[in-house]
Design brief:
- It is a peripheral membrane protein.
- This is AP-1 complex subunit gamma.
- Belongs to the adaptor complexes large subunit family.
- It comes from Culter alburnus (Topmouth culter).
- Keywords: Cytoplasmic vesicle, Golgi apparatus, Membrane, Protein transport, Transport.
- The two termini are 58 Å apart.
- β3 and β4 form a beta hairpin.
- It is elongated, with a radius of gyration of 37 Å.
- With 794 residues, it is α+β, with helices and mostly antiparallel strands.
- α5 packs parallel to α7, α14 packs parallel to α16 and α27 runs parallel beside α29.
- Helices cover 55% and strands 9% of the residues.
- Strands 3-4-5-8-7 form a five-stranded antiparallel beta sheet, with no helix packed on it.
Length: 794
């Protein structure tokens, strides 16, 4: 029986094993036989035994005892044994193994062998597992082989040189002269290797760009030859002449033409020719066209050429292959800010991609659709986005809702349209919106005084229909509490009026209070709305008093406190109830301390240049009312006694003291400290100490690169004794060039007042590469704490 049959027989027996235990038994017996063969020395069977061991290694079983046998076979003069030894070295050895150093001399000898096939084995092994030490020792040999006359050896030596540059970048200068000369070769394999080598040299050492830009005309001629060449069965792939070499040349031209007008002008005509003559019906042609588009967008190309590139990406959107549609939208996302009008022409096709079955394609189409929203198309685009919101996967709802809110705030044609759009989102996906949505909508409603009647009617109908959407219920309760009198009048020109009785309104609020779906915050809104209605209705005040009194013993402390305060208004301070529960003034979004979740808004300092006059009514207010106000929350037992009438001097002094009571409360800027800065991503931290135990940490991420950062996520961990609550982030895409930010709010509760430490994991994607880093924060900045935080990467 021949040795090869023995290998085949071993494979057959292993595959026929019925259980894992039976397979392990077979492997153990075979490994014992292989060890015996190795101990017998040169008996002609060592290479076949090593072949069987490599198969065992492929199955995942230990095969380390064959490493020294690989070294022996590499030193053998027989080609069959040398070939098996090199194969075993590439599979069983790596640069961390000491045995790999033993083959350095054998590789050096084989690189000078008379047979090109032996030289090829040595080159492949060095390119596969060569360590930095081996690369330093053998770099001169590789540089010599780059000048060889044999194309077969040149091709492999070129790829080996690429490996050496990656392992030892300081050796790059050794290969620069040879790399330029390789471009004159006719062999496609050598040309491919030469382009890869030059690309690696340019990426590793930008100083070489000027030297290789002189080769742009030569690269253009090679590319034109590929585009216009006749059919060649050796290099043809689906009707495209050597698409692999074309893609490599286009990538190199993209690097050489970046921010260089001379090189860009030299390749403009070529890129136009490739873009118009390449067939995109097959995958090979699509790959060449895609690289052409990327090159056009990255160099200083003409405007007409950029429009042509966008049109190519638009054609890709009609392709049946989802992968091609995905990369097309990814590319359009990068250029939508600079070539907005050109991308707008394909808006209909992009919106159609929202209906795709693949979630990743939907996500890309959503991001691109939101970027295309403008004041001109806001109504039509919002209609499509709202339809998508009702059918999109759960993991996309939050992103869709946030995008709709931002677009509506920037481009809303009217306040009524703005309110209707947000209410539609809350009705559809109220549980997936960010926390600041409720105060933002309340602020919008309060400023639209002409729409109060319309809004309260519409929100009441939504509340009666569905109370499962918490954000919607909270806004509805606030509006009913503020504008309940308008609801009860039933007079509304903008909407069909509905006769609503006091009992109907109170019943709706009681339903919210008693529902198991209502959160504590929602119950708080409903209880406050019920209390406010006591000054807006006339016949059901006793019912309101009864509802409020029930929650005076509620297990939730927030609700209990509110109910106790409201009961005090009913009993001891009924004469103040109407004044306390009057309508809230219009909320100014730009007022100090009110940012509505927008961290980019500036806090304006109050104008202190002119002191405001003190109103006489403030000083002449009866002391008894002051006592009532102070006693509202359970004041001191000692009543305040009225002082005798003060003189004018003392009056002025008291007035100044009273006005200075809240002095020094001007907004203090919260210190911002950079905790992470890498790959163009900057992460800053702000800390606000709310109480002795509660701290609000805000992480702000910005992007200084030329492309958007996507899939941005933050994870945080703190000591077990500290409670951590992470709010929903403002988004997961950070715009390029610092045009936007993503914020993440973290609430920390430190009841034991232990030393705070936090570990933050940052994950994101940029230009197709996925990055993940961890940062250790050992102290926190705050207005009350001096010093910088201690930060260490992990």
């Amino acid at each position: 029986m021949t040795p090869s049959v023995r290998l085949q027989e071993m494979i057959r027996v292993i595959r026929s094993a019925r259980t894992q235990g039976e397979e392990r038994g077979i492997i153990q017996r075979e490994c014992a036989d292989i060890r015996a063969q190795f101990r017998q020395g040169d008996n002609g069977e060592r290479s076949h035994s090593l072949a069987k061991l490599l198969y065992v290694h492929m199955l995942g079983y230990p095969a380390h005892f064959g490493q020294m046998e690989c070294v022996r076979l590499i030193a053998s003069p027989r080609y069959n044994e040398k070939r098996m030894g090199y194969l075993g070295a590439m599979m069983l050895l790596d640069e961390k193994q000491d045995a790999s150093l033993l083959i350095t001399n054998s590789i050096k000898n084989d690189l000078s062998h008379s047979s090109q096939y032996v030289q090829s084995l040595a080159l492949c092994t060095l390119a596969c597992m060569g360590s930095a030490e081996m690369c330093r020792d053998l770099a001169s040999e590789i540089e010599r082989l780059l000048r060889a006359s044999n194309s077969y050896i040149k091709k492999k030596a070129t790829l080996c040189a690429v490996h050496i540059i990656r392992k030892v970048p300081e050796l790059a200068e050794l290969f620069i002269p040879s790399a330029r000369s390789l471009l004159s070769e006719k062999n496609h394999g050598v040309l491919h290797g030469a382009v890869v080598l030059i690309t690696e040299l340019c990426e590793r050492n930008p100083d070489t760009l000027d030297q290789f830009r002189k080769a742009v005309p030569e690269l253009v001629q090679i590319m034109k030859g590929l585009v216009t060449s006749s059919y060649s069965p050796e290099h043809n792939v689906a009707g495209i002449s050597d698409p692999f070499l074309q893609v490599r040349i286009l990538r190199l031209l993209r690097i050489l033409g970046h921010n260089n007008d001379t090189a860009s002008d030299a390749m403009n005509d070529l890129l136009a020719q490739v873009a118009t003559n390449t067939d995109s019906s097959k995958t090979a042609g699509s790959a060449v066209l895609y690289e052409t588009v990327l090159t056009i967008m990255d160099i200083n190309s003409e405007s007409g050429l950029r429009v042509l590139a966008v049109n190519i990406l638009g054609r890709f959107l009609l392709n049946n292959d989802r992968n091609i549609r995905y990369i097309s939208m990814t590319s359009l996302q990068k250029i939508v800010q600079t070539d907005h009008n050109a991308v707008q022409r394909h808006r209909g096709t992009i919106v159609d991609c929202l209906k795709d079955q693949d979630t990743s394609v939907k996500r890309r189409a959503l991001e691109l659709s939101l970027a295309l929203v403008s004041a001109v198309n806001i109504r039509s685009m919002m209609k499509e986005l709202l339809i998508f919101l009702s059918t999109c996967p759960l993991e996309l709802r939050s992103q869709t809702a946030s995008g709709i809110f931002n677009a509506a705030e920037r481009y809303s044609p009217s306040k009524r349209w703005h309110i209707d759009t947000i209410l539609h989102v809350l009705t559809t996906a109220g549980g997936d919106v960010r926390d600041e949505t409720v105060p933002n909508l309340i602020q919008l409603i309060s400023t639209a005084s002409e729409l109060h009647c319309y809004t309260v009617h519409k929100l009441y109908r939504a509340l009666v229909k569905d109370i499962s959407q918490q954000s919607l219920v909270q806004v509805a309760c606030w509006c009913i509490g503020e504008y309940g009198d308008l609801l009860l009048k039933g007079e509304c020109e903008e909407i069909e009026p509905v006769q609503v009785s006091e009992d109907d309104v109170l019943e709706a609020l009681e339903t919210v209070l008693q529902s198991h779906m209502s959160s504590p915050a929602t119950r708080g809104f409903a209880l406050t709305a019920t209390m406010k209605l006591s000054t807006r209705i006339t016949d059901n005040v006793d019912r309101i008093r009864s509802i409020v009194s029930i929650y005076g013993s509620c297990i939730d402390l927030e609700l209990q406190q509110r109910a106790v305060e409201y009961n005090a208004l009913f009993k001891k301070y009924d004469h103040m109830r109407a004044a306390v529960l009057e309508r809230m003034p219009v909320i100014d979004k730009n007022s100090p301390g009110h940012t509505n979740g927008d961290t980019s808004g500036e806090i304006k300092e109050p104008d202190t240049s002119k002191p405001k006059p003190v109103e006489a009514g403030l000083l002449s207010e009866p002391v008894s009312q002051v006592c009532d106000l102070l006693d509202l929350l359970g004041g001191t037992d000692t009543p305040l006694q009225p002082n005798p009438a003060p003189t004018s001097t003392s009056t002025a002094t008291s007035s100044a003291d009273l006005l200075d009571l809240l002095g020094g409360l001007e907004p203090t800027p919260v210190p911002s400290v950079t905790v992470y800065e890498k790959n163009g991503l900057s992460l800053k931290m702000q800390c606000d100490k709310q109480t002795e135990t509660d701290i609000t940490v805000t992480l702000i991420a910005s992007n200084s690169t030329q492309s958007d950062i996507t899939n941005f996520t933050l994870q945080a961990a703190v000591p077990k004794s500290v409670q951590l609550q992470m709010k929903a982030p403002s988004g997961n895409v950070i715009p390029a060039h610092g045009l936007g930010q993503v914020t993440q709010t973290i609430l920390l509760n430190n009841p034991n007042k232990v030393s705070l430490k936090m570990r933050v994991r940052v994950s994101y994607s940029n230009q197709g590469a996925v990055h993940q880093d961890t940062v250790q924060i050992d102290s926190f900045p705050s207005p009350a704490w001096n010093g910088q935080p201690s930060i260490s990467p992990l």
